[in-house]
Specification:
Keywords: Membrane, Transmembrane, Transmembrane helix. By secondary structure, the chain is mainly alpha-helical. The chain is 69% helix and 0% strand. It contains three helices and no strands. The radius of gyration is 19 Å and the shape is elongated.
């Protein structure tokens, strides 16, 4: 019976590591979109930005606006009536 608690702890640690890895990958892809994208209309980036919590989404839109405001319309989720 000494094996059961170890297996549960190992499984819990593996789930935490997997969750952190998923968050880092998704967060990294989101940041690459808002900070470095050549085109604000990247479908994956727009989707990720749309799924982010409000304050993070607003920060992403502000970063995109700073880079693309004078060149294009805002991407989906960042504008109101087609304006930044």
């Amino acid at each position: 019976m000494a094996e059961t608690p170890r297996k549960k702890r190992g499984l819990g640690k593996a789930l935490i590591v997997a969750l952190v890895a998923i968050i880092l990958v998704i967060g990294g892809r989101w940041y690459a979109y808002v900070a470095y994208a050549d085109n604000p209309f990247d479908e994956v980036g727009i989707g990720l930005n749309s799924m982010m919590p409000g304050p993070i989404r607003e920060k992403g839109c502000a970063m995109l606006k700073a880079r693309f405001e004078n060149r294009t319309l805002p991407p989906a989720g960042c504008g109101v009536n087609g304006n930044w």
